[in-house]
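Weekly sync, protein design subgroup
Attendees: M.S., D.O., the rotation student, P.L. (late)

Item 1: inverse folding check
M.S. brought a backbone from last month's batch and wanted to see whether the design step gives back something sensible before we order anything. D.O. pointed out we never logged the input encoding, so this time it goes straight into the notes. Structure tokens as presented (313 positions):
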């Protein structure tokens, strides 16, 4: 099969960085058309810079990186330096990238790519707030039916929230954008916290990255060590969830994941539950099914895939 054409929409973030590395390490499965940065974990200036740091680390400076929206559609930006550190990629020593940021706005790149590629040929992988994607949908609704699939990290149901008691970070930051995407009719595959909280960076798994004795392996180990501290303290778990690479792993080995095709709505009104993904897991309503909502992962298989692929870089 020909590699799948994808756009990664991202707010790096250590776990975003690992997702980008996994995609760049997998050319037989993934044809990365471009990376669009969005404000999220840290402000846009940093996410656009971090995406390029990661491409250079992978030895792929020819990857096209675009800066997209610098704030949510209707709200003030909420960031997550408390998890990811001041730079968004705290952990290892890093140098500023030398590869250029593309001149085109990320939203324009998304629109232009979907119009120029054959209909049904491009998959979008959002691993940050959904601002760029929803803005593209509002500006150019003709692109919506041309998307093959959206495979995103966001939301939670049984695991409820990580930024509020009810909401997961990516959806909470821009709930209006999430509502547009979940209501768009595009086939959605969702990796919520229910999945990612099972993809924990245990010590042997991080040691496997370090044992690669490569720049990439050392960076990934240092990044996971850094953001592990926060999550281990919070959840009392044996490691931190590596959220975002679940999306790319799904494109490569979908059999690692299990879920249900259900209705998922986004809360945009309530102060208490803003950004909640109201997932009809038990199929209580007859609201239309709009998402393949995952809830399980073969974590050993996922980490084996990651270690195998990242060792190539
Ligand atoms: C999501 O929020 C960010 O902090 C991570 O990069 C991930 O995309 C997890 O809730
Ligand atoms: Ca992210």
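Designed sequence read out in the meeting:
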């Amino acid at each position: 099969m020909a590699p799948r054409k994808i756009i990664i929409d991202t707010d790096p973030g250590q776990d975003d960085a690992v997702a980008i590395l996994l995609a760049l390490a997998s050319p037989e499965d993934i044809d990365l058309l471009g990376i669009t940065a969005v404000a999220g974990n840290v402000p846009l200036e940093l996410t656009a810079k971090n995406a390029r740091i990661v491409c250079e680390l992978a030895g792929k400076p020819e990857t096209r990186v675009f800066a997209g929206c610098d704030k949510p559609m209707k709200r003030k930006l909420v960031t997550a330096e408390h998890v990811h550190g001041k730079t968004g990629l705290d952990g290892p020593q890093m140098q500023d990238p030398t590869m250029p940021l593309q001149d085109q706005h990320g939203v324009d790149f998304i629109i232009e790519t979907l119009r120029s590629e054959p209909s049904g040929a491009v998959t979008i992988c959002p691993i940050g707030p959904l601002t760029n994607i929803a803005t593209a949908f509002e500006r150019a609704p003709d692109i919506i039916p041309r998307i093959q699939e959206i495979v995103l990290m966001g939301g939670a149901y049984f695991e409820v929230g990580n930024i509020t008691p009810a909401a997961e970070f990516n959806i909470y930051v821009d709930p209006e954008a999430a509502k547009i995407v979940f209501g768009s009719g595009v086939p959605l595959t969702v990796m919520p916290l229910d999945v990612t909280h099972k993809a924990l960076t245990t010590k042997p798994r991080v040691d496997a990255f370090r044992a690669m004795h490569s720049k990439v392996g050392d960076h990934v180990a240092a990044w996971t060590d850094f953001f592990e501290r926060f999550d281990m303290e919070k959840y009392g778990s044996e490691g931190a969830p590596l959220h975002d690479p679940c999306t790319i792993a799904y494109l490569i080995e979908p059999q690692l994941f299990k879920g249900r095709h259900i209705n998922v709505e986004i809360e945009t009104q309530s102060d208490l539950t803003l950004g909640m993904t109201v997932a009809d897991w038990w199929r209580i309503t007859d609201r239309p099914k709009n998402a393949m909502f995952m809830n399980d992962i073969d974590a050993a298989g996922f980490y084996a895939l990651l270690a195998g692929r990242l060792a190539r870089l």
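Discussion: The chain has twelve helices and ten strands. Residues 215-235 form the longest helix (21 residues).
Action: P.L. to compare against the previous round before Friday.
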